[in-house]
Amino acid sequence: MKDATVRSMYEVLTSQPPDLVGVLRETIPSIGMLIDALEQQSDPTLRLSLLRQIGAEWYACGGMAEVLTELGLHLAARLPMAQGIVVSELLLAFGAAQEEQRTREWEARLVARATQLDGLHRIISAANSTLDLDTSLQTVVETVAQVMNVEACSIYLYDKHRDDLVLRATLGLNRAAIGQVVARLGEGVTGWAAQLGYPVAVSDVYKDPRYHREPQLGEEMFRSMLAVPIVLFSAERFQFSADKLQGVINVQTIAPREFTQEEISFVETAAGELAFFIANAQLYQQTDERLHQKLRELTTLQQVSKLIAEQIGLHDVLNLIVEKAVHLSKVDRAAIFQMGEDGQLKLVASYGGEGDGVRDLVIQTVRDGRPLAVMNAYQDARFPQLPAVARVENFHSLFCMPLRARGRTIGGICLYRREPHLFDYEQVRLLNTFADEAAIAIENARLYEESLRALRIKSALLQEMHHRVRNNLQTIAALLSMQLRRLDPASPGAKALRESAARIQAIAAIHNLLSRDDIGVTTVGAVARQVIESVQSTLFESDIRVDFAILGDEVRIGSRDATVLALVINELVDNALTHGLAVEGGRIEVEAVLEHGQVLVELRDDGPRHPPPPSRHSSGLGLQIIETLVNSDLNGSFSLIRDEEAGWMRARIRFPQRIIDEDRIEV
């Protein structure tokens, strides 16, 4: 029921019209129908239910409680019923409907507030989750549009340098206009809100003279608009000034709409949170280039340090240093000078140009041990010869830094600029770092060359030592052979001399091998070949055929282990020839493998397949020598296995691999 109808009805009722029910049937048909049902009903319980329905319907139609009381008195007289019962039932139903309506309104307000809080939470989360300003702004417009239940939302950011507002994010408008549409302060609803510093709500933009339609946005269909400035407030909350303005957030609807104070407050709160994020993002953007510069410096220094550590060559390292010095220091040219052993400076690396005309300045820098700066090469009275050099090499400003290593100056690094330039602290600091890296590279190269010279000398001495030891051992073996010719070949003394000569020849063969191969390193296969060749020429003089085979991997061992292993293999071969293959000959195999850092050597012969030699006394000295050498010198283990099934006698030796690798590191 409209308010005018209620007032008219109240005036009619209070003037006691002749037919109140008739008036209600004409003005409020729904209540008239309930009154008819009430008059036709005789059941008291159903009558009370109908009275409650009349009271609730009266509230729903917008009626007043005073008029409802008059209606109750009239109905009590018509039914007939007690006036107190009729009036109380009507008013109780009226009050219950009113309370239910208030509850629904509160519930709606709570739901709206929860939605707003959730939206603020998403806005804050978006602001805190990334420093990508555009991504966060797009999340904000989508969230505000959803919470406000509007068709369009946009954010403009204030450009302090141009003094205008630039569209940076939108939902519902033309996204192609982002970055293209610009609003001036004080122009349009957006510019008006930005200039005033407080929200501007317009229920119908076509009736507001401040509204300015932007053709690129495609906003012809929108009627209502709310513009809220994004302001970064300090402690003085309401003291607005242009330096605190960050931008404007707009919401627009297709249908005309009166924005409530709660809705305006929500957008203000969202704008406040957004202001801090925008300020932080802009601060980040201002320092981003500096941070990237630092990152480039660290990356470059890491590359230089890596090259120095890898020892790929002084020339490559120094060229990289001057190249990066030019790019990071924002200069036109860089050069490195090195002090030679003769005390003369020479240009060793340059980038961005050539020429060493400033050698005298570098010499002064080296002599004084401190940096030298020349802002204007054509006007510096300290160096009268410098203008001619500057014209030839095309530079105007110069900065030289000494290179120091181990307490002495070994050269200098120079930066050149074509225009007059004062080298600031950051450039000097960066150049000092490059100077340290260059000094390290030069010093490392010098030490490396000295190490190579020392290694070559030691290698030659070691080869000479092996050569002399081999000759001495061969001399001893020759003396034993001369003595052997004076004895009966079948006598025990002759046998002992042959075995001793064979052992000495095995050691001499290993020294011969080590003097030709990598210093201090050989392989099990090479040791076995040398021993077998020696055995064939000394121990084994019969016409019986014995085949030798060397199998397995190329397992590397050190010189000390090689000498011991040679003696062990010599004893094993001698044992096989004496006790297994003396009658018919046979086959001897030597196989080496590397298993988990352990060297496994197996020497096997097929002696069990052949008839044994005539029985003769054996002292067992050979096996005793083998066990002593393997256990004490090789720190390994020895086992002798008779393989009846395969017909082999297997001697197995296991010991840890101990060598000196290419980097001279013991493993």
Rg from alpha-carbon coordinates: 53 Å
Query: What's the story with the biggest beta sheet?
Result: 6 strands, antiparallel
Beta-strand percent range: 15-25%
Please mark out the parts with pLDDT under 50 across 5 or more consecutive residues, or reply none.
Answer: 1-17, 234-240, 661-667
Oligomeric state, counting identical vs distinct chains:
single chain
Number of helices: 17
Strand order of the largest sheet: 3-2-1-6-5-4
Tell how many strands the DSSP assignment holds.
Answer: 18
Helix content: 40-55%
Structural class of the secondary elements?
Answer: alpha+beta
Terminus-to-terminus distance: 101 Å
User: Can you tell me the overall shape?
Assistant: elongated
Structural summary, described in words:
With 667 residues, the protein is of the alpha+beta class. The chain contains 17 helices and 18 strands. A 6-stranded antiparallel β-sheet has the order 3-2-1-6-5-4, sandwiched between helices. A 5-stranded antiparallel β-sheet has the order 8-7-11-10-9, with helices on both faces. A 5-stranded mixed β-sheet has the order 13-15-16-18-17. The protein starts with a helix and ends in an 11-residue tail after the last strand. Mean pLDDT is 78; it is low at 1-17, 234-240 and 661-667.
